[in-house]
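Q: Joint fold for the lines below.
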Amino acid sequence: MTEGALLHLARRFPLLILQKFNQADEKSSGGDWEWFVGSRRHGWIAFRIQAKRMDGLRYRQLDHGGQLPGERQYDTLLRDSAAASVPTFPFHVFFNGWSSGWPRGFAWNACPNGTTFPRCAHHDMSDMGCSLLPATTVRDLHRSSGRKRLRVATYLPTSVPWSWLFGPPPKRTSSGPGPTGWPAGIGGLSQLLAWHETMAATLAEPPPSGVNQGGSTRDHSPAEVLLRRWAELLGQGAVIPEGRPAERLPAYADWTLKHNLRERLLRDRLDGLATDAWDFHESDDDALRDQDQQTFGTPSTLSGLIFTPWPDA
Ligand SMILES: [Zn+2]
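A: Joint structure:
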């Protein structure tokens, strides 16, 4: 499922670079894939993602053990992400599906205005087919939910569509900002970093009481709180993140990116594309040719890497 989703993305957005690895063992990094966002000019941030699929309204794989004794997979993911040289945000992506309609009694957490499905104009139901939660939230919910720790109902009412990795949703049906007045989209890479700091802090809080009841019994959904907080931050002027993008990719990612860019250059002769989007220099080519003889182990034993260029404003 992961492979299918990533291939679909890479085909739909040809600027993305996807590198698959033939490694089934995901234990040492805790992640299924790593997603680097940035450029040589802007620097880099990363998402490391552990995917879990729904199985009869349960995420049974959440009980899987991690790399070290006593660890769950999410512990490994959190520990290894914190040690990364690039600011790395650990997430779970849940693959969901239902035979008919949105499941009854599950709160809809994909609307900044608190509108419930199906009236919400920000997302289709299918946008929650790949739902997103910070791995810290998943850990806390899993640890505190006892017999409900594998239930989809424990996680989905706090989850958002995975497109929120790249910022809050634009309104689907009309142009311009929605009624809450937040500006759609994200500016610089630093702003994306701040967005993730805000998302991690907000979605890590315990959900408001009654969040699992759905509909009008709730006060504010986690998504509403997140978007309101984000709008306040933007309203204060420049958003200053706690962290900063890393200047360099780790060696395995740097090599993977350059290798892919060179292949693209050779294959498509799209010099303009590669130099604009990735700041790829011809001089790298020689160095790369030498490096090409080397084999880089992927220390994290991920099954894939994906790169998203951050455009110049
Ligand atoms: Zn909505």
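Q: Anything notable?
A: Residues 64 and 72 are 6 Å apart (CA to CA). The radius of gyration is 20 Å.
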